[in-house]
Amino acid sequence: MSEWWTYRLSSFLLFAPRTYYRLLELYNAEVWPAHLVALALGLALCVVTFQGRAWAARAACAILGACWLWVAWAFHLQRYATINWAATGFAAAFAMQGLLLAGAAFDARLRLRPLRSGRARVGLGLLLFSLAVQPALGVLQGRSWYEAEVFGIAPDPTTLGTLGMLLLMWRTDHAAGAAVKSAFMALLWPIPLLWCAISGATLWAMHAADALLLPAAALLVLFTALRSPRARSGGAR
Questions:
Q1: 3-state secondary structure of 212
Q2: How far apart are alpha carbons 110 and 54 in whole angstroms?
Q3: CB 73 within 8 Å of CB 61
Q4: 101, 110 contact by CB (below 8 A)
């Protein structure tokens, strides 16, 4: 038996990189035209973000919740679990995140930050990146469009877009009960941030060129959020 220090991250990979990308290709083919629905949902997130209405944040949470529940069932449980036993746990985590976001959709005090704030611009940038750029990354690495990872369909762009939207959200009240609701909102962060680490580690083991994308995005989100933790009247920093 080899000593533990001789193991590398790739030693724990349960599948070949080609197997994973083939799974993505088959998944995309099987769920089409769900991509059109996902595209519509992504565009809806952009619309509500630019409009900034009082109900916009709640609508965004409902959309994101539906996306996380879909990825939990259609990708992790139905497909990814066939090549990675850990995907059953990923499915449970994604389903939990979907339910948390659905619960946040009932918070009448939830708002979106004005786009003039630096935190909001970072959040919007991450959302747009997940919608328009991330699906093309595989092609830039020489893979087929059939293996593209699309927001609302695949876990990585869904996670990145969600983190962008979470940066945009804030609550308007500091009254009695606000601390409990703020604590509930804090529960929306751990699963997406943890997935950034898991996905980054998996892609690193696969020697993927974009392995550091999600971990770097998570660090950017944490840095941005910690710089402006509180919302001010009329918007947050």
A1: coil
A2: 8
A3: no
A4: no
The residue behind tokens 């059109």 is 36
- The answer to whether 42 and 164 are in contact (CB under 8 A) is no
Rounded to the nearest 10 degrees, how much is the dihedral formed by the CA atoms of 82, 83, 84, 90?
A: -50
User: pTM above 0.85?
Assistant: yes
Q: How far apart are CA 203 and CA 26, in angstroms?
A: 19
Whole-angstrom distance, CA of residue 59 vs CA of residue 81: 31
Q: Decide if 166 contacts 127 (C-beta within 8 A).
A: no
83 burial level (CB within 10 Å; 0-12, 13-18, 19+):
middle
pLDDT tens column, 142-197: 888 999 999 999 999 999 999 999 999 988 765 544 445 567 788 999 999 999 99
The 3-state DSSP class for residue 86 equals coil
Could you tell me which of 178, 27, 177, 190 has the C-alpha nearest to residue 96?
190
Tokens of 109: 């005090």
Q: CA-to-CA distance for 124 and 217, rounded, in angstroms?
A: 13
Q: Which residues pair with 94 in a beta bridge?
A: none
Contacts of 202 (CB under 8 A, 6+ apart): 13
Residue with tokens 């009695």: 176
Per the CB < 8 A criterion, the answer to whether 23 and 79 are in contact is yes
DSSP string, 102-143: HHHTT-TTEEEPPTTSHHHHHHHHHHHIIIIIHHHHHHHTT-
Distance CA(98)–CA(87), nearest Å, equals 16
